[in-house]
Amino acid sequence: MESSSSQMELADNREINKVLIQSLAKLGQKVREIRYTIADRPADWVTASPEKSAADDATSEAAPTKPPEGPVDMEEFKNDFRCITMDQRNANGGGSSGPIPVDDPWGAFADDQLGLMDHLGIQEFFFMGYCIGGPFALKLMERAPSRVLAGVLCQPVGHASKTPDSMYNSGRDLWAPELISQRADVTAEECERYLHNLYRAQPNFVYSVSRDFARSCQTPMLVMPDDTPSHSYEAAMELVELAPKAEVTVYPWKEQESVKSNTVNQVRDFLLAHQPAAANA
User: Fold this and answer.
1) Residues 230/256, Cβ–Cβ less than 8 Å
2) What is the rounded CA–CA span in Å between residue 128 and residue 183?
3) From CA 275, how far away is CA 62, in angstroms rounded?
4) N or C: less crowded end of the chain, CB within 10 Å?
5) Exposure b/e, 223-233, CB count within 10 A at least 16 = b
């Protein structure tokens, strides 16, 4: 799980609905292609296109052989869930591509993720988002509350009072120049408008949803805080205070191996506790 998307379903496949996704790219909105991988075939990245069904997806030899690793390796969960990892649209170093959705960037990411779930025939799922995947998770909870059974927000980005433009600056200085160098159809002005709508149109919290939504959100969530210029501790803890079904791990949780191991177990237990009753039958 990290800047790609991760889905998890129960390992015994009694239902094809328990999934944990993280960050994706898109099926719909003229997406050129998306790349995803499933834990039961970890050596393959698969390319999907809007015109094809999941049965038509083709393995791509040019793609990486394993999804990039985040702070918690997907391998930790593959025995309990079906894990699906996917590139997010237009991520640097990724294999998914599509237009720049300037007018509604967070909504477009949610549509991408839901499009992949539809493509794979998965109705309900868990979602685990790393970094920018935290706001992805919250937007999905807002867009499709009946489909997202629970979410884990690992090191979520958000507004930090000391470094309010950290994510905008990173996108402007790192993401945009690389994308522009590879795409003749993308301009610097388009990227700046896109980044503005991502990080400045709704600032001072978690970017993708409002505080009012956080107060009303009934989706269980587990927050794993971090404290860097982009991974805002203050925004993460405010979310925990506002969301009625939010839980939080210890912080810090990554530095000591024993603490990290206990935290990973906490994530697993949290997700298993929110399985639908039919999954335990």
Assistant:
1) no
2) 30
3) 36
4) C
5) bbbbeeebbbb
